[in-house]
Every structure is written in C-alpha cells, then in structure tokens.
Design brief:
This protein is α+β, with helices and mostly antiparallel strands. The protein folds into 3 domains: 91 residues, Tetratricopeptide repeat domain (Serine Threonine Protein Phosphatase 5, Tetratricopeptide repeat), CATH 1.25.40.10; 70 residues, Immunoglobulin-like; 109 residues. It is built from 9 helices and 9 strands. The N terminus is likely disordered.
Amino acid sequence: MRSTTLRWPGPHPLWPAVLVGFSSVVLTVAWACVARADAPPSDAPAPAAAPSTPGADQIQFAAREHDLGYRAYVDKQYDEAASHFENAFFAAPNPAEIRSAIRARRDASELARAATLAAIALRRYPTDPSTSKVANDTVADARPHVHEVMLASAAEYSVAIDEKIVSSERVKESDLFMTPGLHELVVSWSDGRNERVTVQATEGGSQTIRLDPPSPPPPAPVTPSPAPQIATPAPTPPAPAEPPPTSKPFGPAVFIAGAALTGVSLGVMVWSGIDTENNPGRNVVRTQCKGFATIESCPTAQPGISNQNRTNALIGVTSGLAVVTAVVGVFFTQWSPARPTVGVRLAPLVGIGQVGLAGSF
C-alpha cells in the first residue's frame, strides 16, 4: 500500500520581519497623528503683544525685590536696599516704591542718585503729595553738593551716566545729578543713534545741554535680485513595459476544489486500507484457509479480497486526483502576481511512494 504524507512546513521565515515592519508603520502613523493633534492650526492667530501695564511676572518680581529691599534696609544695608527698591519700581512703577528707593539712597549718602530719582518721581507723579514732598526735600538737600544737568532733545531718548542707565523710559527732558568730577553721558535715540557727552561736574554747579539727534543712517541700497533661472525639466524616462497578461483559464478556486477532493479521497483511502488489514485479518485467513488450493477459493478470505480491490481502486482515484490537481495548479491556474504576505498556500505533493498536499502559512 502506498504511503501518504501531509506536510506543513510551518510559518514563513519572513513572518517576524513582517511583524516588525508592520509595527514600525503603526507606531510611525500614531506618532504623526499625535504630533499633528498637538501642533497649533496653521490659521491660529499670533499671540498678542505684551500689555503696557505690568504683567503677573513683573508684579511678582517687584514684590520679591521689595521684600529683599525691606530686609536689607532693616539691616542698614542701605545701598543694597536702594538697588532692590529701584528694581521693584522699574518692574512695576508706583510712587511708594520710588519713595523707598529715594530714602534708601539718601541714607546711603548717595545724594546724586537720590536727587536723580527724585527728579524722576516729580516728573512721573507731580500730583502725589507724599512723593512731591520727599522728592523736593531730597533735591533741595542735594543741590549744594552735586552737579545738576538739564538735558533736552527734540526726540525721545534714554541716557546713561558712566555706563549706568538712569531710567528705563524714554523722555525728551530729564534732570540729572552727578557727584563732582569727570563724567560721561551716553544719549541714545531710536535707530541705533548715540552720542557721548563729557561733563565736568562741580559741587553746586548746573548746566543745560540741548542735543539734536543725529541723522538716521541712510537705508541700505537694495540690490535687485537676479531673474530666476527656469530649469529645463529632465526628460521623463519611459515607464517599464508591463509583462503581457497570462491567459490561463482557471482561477485559484479550481485548484482549491481539486485539492479538497484529493484530501477527501485520501481520507477514504486510508480508512479502506485499515479496514482491509482488519477485516477479516491475516491470522483468521491463515487459520481458516489452510485446506484451500488458493486464497481466492476460500470463503473466509472473500471480504478481505473485496476490501483490497476497493482500496486499490481508491489509491488509483486519489493518485489521479492529485496528479490532475497538480497539473491544473501549475499549468492552468492564474495565480495573483504578488505573493500574499500572510495566508495559507496549498500545493500538491506527488513523489515516489507518496501522494499528498504541502501547505504553508
């Protein structure tokens, strides 16, 4: 009796690579979706400009600086206290803060800076009684000992004395006070225009300086951009010729049907062979057919002979189905051009001593 085999070689060796590649694609798409969801829309409005009034960060900074200034003032570190009070005032201007800065500068015996702050206070808060009193008293006490400069310009400017900024605001007129000695003023207008002025300060002296801002720098010459070069597109290579379509008459369904019939016939053939061996059985035939000239003449052996003929016929039918299915699958079935990455593939297996199906996932 011919032996039959049904072999399944197992998953395709490229299956792990397919899983890794598919996972990479899924993760990449998910990450792109998350990035797109987190990104602002292209038509979102630009953030609004910072308001002119102090923001929350500036107010918080000013409160912290005021607290540091108060602690330093209690410890009689008047110069340090004055620096903190000034930082607090320029971050979030208010009359009480500049009064604290003026008092700290006076207690530190820095009359020139105290008088300069007093002049800023008089300009910023002319109607505040407490601020006006502290500022006027400070200027009156400092004038006999410092040099006063009244600086005016037709355009707004900022000014620094000896590389130290006087105020963060731009003005057209300011009242500055300096200790006796040589000092340098740096006056700055818009468009990067600056002018340096040397002042020989004397005790109790004063002077007025009027400056006209320098002319703005001429605009940079506009160089016309060269005309864009229109590139000649490269010729498009001809598309590769597609192979002519095959004209095989059957689809995969015909082969699958043949393989199924072959499998059914194979199962019946195996059953028939087992039944032939067991009914009536070799030992029974040998015992009960000893006196007969031939096995065929023994009545006991007749069922076994009939079963053997049936099995031989099934072997022929199964082999024929397997051969026809294989020929149809190889020569007459139009398979899809791309081999499926995941799926079940069946192929006939015909060889010496075996007829069956080979499958792969």
